[in-house]
């Protein structure tokens, strides 16, 4: 390379370069300390929840009048992927899911548009609608969860304490929000007997109106004087249940207290709100979320210090328990990864010292921290935390970033051996290899483009892999051409004997094999092609996987009772689970959520919305081995104790949340027909012995009592359907009539009948309904009763009723295998369906295909960038084709490594395969450039190929060995293992092929002839 030489520039300005080195190290050290720590990279949950209530409506009316109207409007949402909703009688819940291509800013703008457009159609919804309400914080992660139990304190006293603790913790740095779990709202019940009211001649409606009128908050005026302003206040508002009980009413010419007419007592919401339990005891939880960009380790320390001070002030009987602590998990994970990083550095340095010697190895050793010192400030600038993906990227990059430093150091040693001065030798690498190294670096970075720019949640999850690797490789190139030459001048010494060094045994063996391969060129090329074809054919033998399970000790235990089950039934089921967990030696601790799923304490968690029939326990085992033992025990327990429930026991997953691994969505306009098709899909799914616990997301109808009012008879009595509904609601469920303002709480005053009137179906017939004139008549006088059925909820997807058939799988079985095995039967069923009905694969398989498709969609961009960089470097179509022909050969090693190790070909492994293309192309383009340089000296194709390959043998092999050995620390990990094995096997085989296949292909393409001296000089180069 002629012209400006960056290495010479650096050598001429040593003081400035040394200063820059010191600044880089200091900045890197400071940034490393300041970098945020987290368990997983932040990725956007592209889901908003829209809810609306229509009290009293049937499921069918709610779906047609509310769900349908809202979904029609929501289908106009920008970046919409699909809508998913479930409708219950009087309640609709819609999940608005955006495409993976929507970035964080698009998502924020879209949620604003959703609020605006739904607000525009609010007037078109039925009268009586409550809402719609919007939840776009669905993806908040509450990494620290405390639970508080009490002994000798009421629920209200415990809540007062927890609310006070919440207020204090909100002042802790990095705390964004805190949610209460399991807190029960207080209620003042006014329970009356309909018969007693009738006997006393008290009109219930007038009684309620009097309660509301006395407790109303209204302005009472202000007196303005010449000197001051005096506000007027009217007494009478309720401060407690005693005030409610003491209110007087005029009835029959006398004054009666409310306590003479009804029982007034303070209690809690009935039925209860979602409950929270710790180790089998009722509790209130505090879930703490960190602000964006915060450091979870610092947050953990700050919260722990604050809780220590708070705990010291708590009265005896209130006990805090740490339920989830992401800080500890992250600290452990980062500690393990830093250990892996140190091990990788030690391995690479060992390779460098052994192969190059002490002084050259020292140059490589210093280049590594200098490169990392540039990477850390760049990560801080781009707001990339130290987390699972970025730390893995550092290890991957570490194995790659020594390549340029090795090339520069090796070239300097060779020139020193030829007797050149240190200045000339140190700048030689830039003159001859700088552009090739830069092209190779850019090609390697291009191999990670699908990671960075694929439009999917999985790619967003792994985005920092692309960024960190790109920064590290670019930094390594600048270190190699600016800092390494200066280090080389200071550290390297000319060898005692100048001239060509005596070749080693490995080098002599390689050169002999290369000559034999070129002589049998067609056999070499044909054999390589045959191996490549065999590896392609063997690909189906590798198990497929989306993301692996986590190695955290938690287990999620889900119990979903029939969908008409009450929260009392769910609580009873949770108590039975608590009993079997109590005293188990494998259990560390556990928490149970009754009536809802666990709050998102872990980013990839699939969150379940509140439903009375659903409970979820988070069981923390003592270690991973205990987790697996406990998993087997709990699966047996659930199968024996809850045969009619949909239950599952699963570890936490990695990657974007998916839910049940096996899913088939059955959709169509008629609910009953969809139900029949789903039963057939379940039969097919159940035919595979690996599919376990086949179930449906909705299926069972629930009972209901239809009260058919004889409208003519009701009119004669002066009644209407509205009046009857109001009476029934008041008697059976209770009606909030006013609120007591108690400290920071608003306590509803609920008027309802006594228990004997509320819980008995038989008493409905004799229920006394007041009519004008002060009399009452039994409900059966003008109404008849009959039993009926309706679905408690109906799921829809894109406005079409959709029933999902789901199943679990045992460990070691991948959902892709089952889906592929059942594909013929599913296809046969689909062929028999009417055009408006369909069966679609969902779950892990669908998400994996979507993510892989998003990656493959970016592959053309990756190839374009690679080809452009390579063409700029080689500037020849034949040479470009030769480089490109080598890149896919890494698949031979990938397939062999994955088959031998038993690792699956998952999303992360595919990213490793794509990255391999860049690594292999880098070596190929540098080798082609060296061959062309040899030919420029007048050598023939054969001699140039042999000599160039021989001169590049050591740096290419050293880089490959360093990369392969540097992957060893992360090879055993659950998340990075498949990628590590893919890169190790692929790069090792591809390196050998680059050094053998590529020169052979070059000679065959160029038609080179073997010179007479080749055989004689085979061992003397």
From TrEMBL:
InterPro entries, A to Z: AcrB_DN_DC_subdom, Acrflvin-R
Membrane-spanning ranges: 16-35, 337-356, 362-382, 435-455, 461-492, 513-542, 853-873, 880-900, 906-929, 956-975, 981-1005
GO molecular function, one term: xenobiotic transmembrane transporter activity
Keyword Membrane: yes
Alphabetically ordered keywords of this record: Membrane, Transmembrane, Transmembrane helix
Record GO cellular component, one term: plasma membrane
Keyword Cell wall biogenesis/degradation: no
Superkingdom to which the source organism belongs: Bacteria
Pfam families, per the entry: ACR_tran
Gene3D superfamilies associated with the record: Multidrug efflux transporter AcrB pore domain, Multidrug efflux transporter AcrB pore domain like, Multidrug efflux transporter AcrB TolC docking domain, DN and DC subdomains, Multidrug efflux transporter AcrB transmembrane domain
The protein, known as: Multidrug efflux pump subunit AcrB
